[in-house]
Amino acid sequence: MRIKIIFLISVLAISLTPSIGHSVAVEKKAKNYTVTMKKAHLPTAPNNGTDDYRCFLLDPKVGVDSIIRTIKFVPQRKNYVHHAIIFRVTDADLAEAKLKDKSGNGWPCFGGSGLGGMLTSFTSSPWLSSWAPGRGIDISPAGYGTPFEKGEHLVLQVHYNLLAANGAAIQTDQSKIKITAIPAKGSKIKQLNLKLFPAPVELACPKGVTGPLCDRRASLIDLAARTSASSAFEASGLNLICGQDPRKPIASLTSKCERRIGENFKIIAAAAHMHLLGQSLTMILNEGSPNEKVIFDVQNYNFDDQSATILKNPIDVARGDRISVKCTFDPTRRQRIEQLAKLEPRYVTWGEGSSDEMCLGVISAVKS
Length: 368
Prior knowledge:
single chain; mainly beta; Jelly Rolls; 2 domains; 5 helices; globular
């Protein structure tokens, strides 16, 4: 169960291939690839929900083993695309992906790509990149990139936030991905890896705000109905992983979790992901020790700007070190943000919907 929970939460996150606003020189022999969703998709939410997670199989037709230097998701309906995650699909999961895709119609995929076994996001179909509001083209730092083998496919997971339509008619979406890559043969570029650090979220209804979903159990049942059956288990599983009693978690405006590191690596960049109630996110190495170091600190979180930050000085992390993530939230924003104020008051937990919350620190690292 512990492994399954870690897998499920790991694929919910926003990407961290570092985003740079200015142009950079692209290596010689670089090739550009553009791949578009085969068919336009009309977003619809299940069970009276307000979120649609849909996955699509895409073939960029990469003819040689390559290293991706830049990648850009281009949403056709940017106003209600909450985020998009891009997965690599190797031969191990390709047949299943083709079956699910149904000639371009895609498949529902709350909680990940829905391919393979519980460890597929780490092995046969790992997470590659993603888009969130405020992000443009993702450009790897000089000397770094992400491997992509000849013949591999992509799965594009798009999260449509139908609340953002503000009552207007929902239109079809046919988004695309643009990639710049260089041949892997002879390249000295170092390979980037993403590492995710989630923390549980337990936000009670503010004082004076009442309703049936202000009861945590009722809220979790509703969460499962409008997203996926595993969502309630994810929320409880995070509490277990992070040292809280999953049966009786303590509601708090602050979320925190610490992880013991089992390998050596160097942190190159970092990013924060929360939803609309998030205020701040901080990541700390070896908190409380003489060699404590702040990795990343966002004190005025802006959902519409989730771009990653490349560290001025990369940080070395050794086996046995600890990395903690801490988030703060303001649940009273539900009564002030237009798209949330129209919803029934609720006890807010970790969840995949735009009206739920997340506390997720993400780092981009290389082995050392």
